[in-house]
Design goal:
- The strands form two sheets. Strands 5-12-11-6-10-7-9-8 form an eight-stranded mixed beta sheet, with helices on both faces. A four-stranded antiparallel beta sheet has the order 2-3-1-4.
- The chain starts with 5 loop residues before the first helix and ends with a helix.
- It contains 17 helices and twelve strands.
- About 45% of the residues lie in helices and about 15% in strands.
Length: about 525
């Protein structure tokens, strides 16, 4: 059960408990409805013993000795037959006997007779009739003309009244038992759910799967314009705290190219990208949000102009100056994904993505992008080597352990270690103290660098080749970075030249040595 306590299991899966109780109550109410209503009425009789010669103590002992045998008379054929005849009941002696009970309360001379019936009036009539017939039988049995010492009389003192409430079914008891049974069922379901469910719901779970810290817990409603005022202020505060934590994890510097990697499809939410872009823009940094997926859903939340995007730029059909557009009412710019009709070939994308990212990084303080292995036009494998900060997105309760493990393996194969994980879709009452689970090694002392930095001669050469072939024409915010990388290429050329000269010297020296030796011998 992954070391989860039962309390946490029941807290996280409270819906199973509630549904179990509701199902139990519903089944109990259905059972109670199917049971016919039964009414019970009771009559009370008093045993009176009179004697002209016996003392009060003797009469009392005689009464206590006799009263204990009278309850059996209530089930005698004589009593039940007379009751059926008196009331005109359409039933048998056996059936009526099952509906009649008689009891003598301990240390008393009382006889209580109860009767069950479908109606209140019939229950009272049966109880009174049985009490009267038992009294008649007792009078005939106990009194005789030959023995006049005792006169025994069983007198009905408290006649039965028609009850106002049925005695069965007992609805509160049945519903209570149903609720208890439903709760037990809910507990069992919650435990089985915990065993079978691999959804990620805690920072400790993230740590066990990935070894990474959780840098933030974003609200479960991430759509930017789904709420206003108080909720929006709280949402903005959470996103600002998250970007601050990302900065701390990256050695106190915001990554120039921040790549978001959803661990599952449900973790990819437009509101997360928009919220982080807004939070970064509020710090005063120029921010560009790149939409790396045709179906990312950014345009449905923003009012942007233009039709070109990343696909057209990678195809060479549009310039980056024209594709990047400001967002109305926001502090950041947007590079849309473009049209699926202009999906670039893989080779073209690989050749041009470096120049695109280089220009974005040189023109904006922060570039935010989301990518997976299946996003188009930009895949994770295409852009991840250029990111100096990668954050994995995990949807609370929806992303499975296997999904996160798969993403971590994919990044590890690429030689990339993310800064951390951000939980999205976290309910307000499920937020936890993330700092308690952080370790010193979770935070870098110096900012991380991308796998293929811009000052790599190979990267610089390939980037310049695109600019020289006319990928970027004219001046603008994306001015070609030739002046920055030319010295690097010159150093690379000098290095290559030195290597060639050394090789030639290595080849010539043995020949010269051999000729000199031959001349000496001659």
């Amino acid at each position: 059960m992954e070391n989860q306590g039962y309390f946490r299991i029941f807290r996280d899966r409270w819906i199973a408990l509630i549904l179990g109780v509701l199902v139990g109550v519903w089944v109990a109410s259905a059972v109670a409805t199917s049971i016919p209503r039964t009414y019970t009425a009771s009559a009370m009789s008093f045993l009176s013993v009179q004697s002209g010669t016996g003392s009060l103590f003797e009469r009392s002992q005689f009464s206590l000795a006799r009263i204990t045998s009278y309850p059996e008379l209530a089930h005698s054929s004589e009593v039940l037959s007379n009751t059926i005849r008196d009331l005109g009941l359409k039933t048998t002696v056996q059936q009526l006997g099952a509906r009649v009970t008689a009891a003598n309360p301990p240390t008393t001379v009382l006889l209580q007779i109860s009767a069950d019936a479908p109606t209140p009036q019939q229950a009272a009539a049966i109880a009174n009739s049985v009490a009267a017939n038992v009294a008649a039988v007792v009078r005939n049995l106990e009194n005789s003309a030959a023995d006049t010492r005792y006169s025994v009389t069983l007198e009905p003192r408290i006649p039965a009244q028609a009850p106002t409430q049925p005695s069965a079914p007992q609805l509160p008891i049945i519903l209570g038992l149903g609720a208890i049974a439903g709760l037990a069922l809910g507990l069992i379901v919650a435990i089985l759910w915990a065993r079978l469910d691999t959804g990620i719901r805690s920072a400790s779970h993230v740590r066990r799967i990935s070894g990474l810290p959780v840098l933030g817990e974003l609200p479960w409603r991430s759509t930017p314009r789904s709420a206003r005022r108080r909720w929006m202020a709280r949402r903005e505060r959470i996103f600002r705290e998250t970007q601050l934590t990302i900065r701390q994890a990256n050695g106190g510097v915001i990554p120039k190219f921040l790549l978001l990697v959803p661990a599952s499809r449900s973790a990819s939410q437009p509101g997360v990208r928009l919220g982080l872009a807004e939070a970064l823009a509020w710090t005063g940094r120029s921010t560009c949000l790149v939409e790396g997926d045709f179906f990312g859903g950014i345009r449905s939340h923003l009012e942007v102009a233009g039709t070109g995007g990343l696909a057209e730029v990678l195809n060479g059909m549009a310039s980056l100056d024209d594709a990047v557009v400001p967002v109305e009412g926001e502090r950041f710019s947007l590079l849309p994904a473009g049209s699926p009709k202009h999906l670039p070939r893989e080779y073209d994308a690989e050749q041009r993505i470096r120049g695109v990212i280089s220009n974005l990084v040189s023109s904006f303080d922060v570039t935010v992008m989301e990518a997976t292995s299946i996003t188009q036009p930009a895949t994770l494998e295409l852009v991840a080597p250029y990111a100096d900060g990668i954050v994995v997105l995990v949807r609370y309760g929806w992303t499975r352990s296997a999904d996160l493990a798969q993403v971590m393996v994919r990044l590890r194969v690429m030689g990339i270690r993310p800064l951390g994980v951000v939980l999205t879709g976290v309910p307000p009452f499920r937020r936890s103290d993330l700092a308690a689970g952080w370790l010193p090694e979770d935070f870098n002392e110096v900012p991380r660098r991308s796998m293929w930095p811009l000052n790599d001669p190979i990267d610089a050469e390939m980037t310049l080749s695109k600019h020289r072939t006319g990928l970027r024409d004219g001046a603008g915010p994306f001015t070609a970075i030739t002046s920055e990388v030319e010295p690097v290429l010159e150093r690379r050329a000098e290095f290559d030249s030195d290597e060639v000269d050394s090789d030639r010297d290595a080849e010539v020296s043995p020949r010269a040595t051999k000729l000199a030796t031959d001349d000496t011998r001659q």
